[in-house]
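name: query_chain
kind: protein
chains: 1
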Amino acid sequence: MARMAGRRALFAGPVLLAVTFGVFALAALSPFDPVKAYAGTAGLTASGRDLDQLRANLGVDRPLVERWWDWLTSALTGDLGTSAVMRQPVADVITERLGWSVLLAATAFAAAVLLGTALGVLAARRPGGGLDRAVSGLAYTLEAAPAFWLGLLAIWLFSVRLGVLPSGGLTDAAGDTVTAGQVLTHLVLPAAVLGLSQLPWFHLYVRQGVADALAEDPVRGARARGLAERTVLLGHGLRAGMLPVLTLIGSRVPELITGALLVETVFSWPGIAAATVQAATAVDFPLLAALTVLATAAVRVGNLLSDLLYGLADPRVGFDG
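structure:
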């Protein structure tokens, strides 16, 4: 395990370097002007001389490689730079928002894994039965539904029509003190929507894996020996069916991050999403690079975690990856 983690860490360095350079290169090709985004409405009446001076102050008039290298060397010392659009250090922007994004993503992911696994096991007991057709049909429908559409539908139903849940934010009114109760209440809809967008994959994988395991000869033999159905289902079927899910956990991290960005935007959740959107539209080089590195690192860690869990669950696989 240590060797695998070490090899992955060595490979992660060049990947992160390439990602950061790619961010600066794409931002340089963007049609958005970071100077006008920084100046806001004042940029509409500013003279060309003033805009050029602001461009020099922000450092966006320097060559691409020079800007990237300066940011990289500073980041390695812990200085991520200053966000032009947020008007504060990048580290502060991430610190203020990361916790809320992690709370939303972790809650939704845990709900998707637990509920998807439970429904998959129940559906696999009788393949082709009424429960299997109903749940699997719903899973295929949710799989094709965009997360932002599910979010808008949830707001319309539970906030506008029924009025039982808030439509967004962390508090009921601006300026209110953030309390645990309000956070939990406001977390329900975005976490449910994000969880539903991830649930179909876990349900379908578990359903197929458990159904295949229950059709194997060892399981038939266990039933012939008179073992209880619950023991057969949980001890044999679920154990074999969970192995593909361990790999799925890592591969779903990119989709989880993308879905979280959309859900946070729809529900005005104060996470990383708003900062990412503003950094992209304003071509905020330091903030955009830091957020991209953070997302890339999360994907790498997720893939490593799934490989380690799979190796622990199935010793035949080992840790040679």
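note: The chain has a mean pLDDT of 78.
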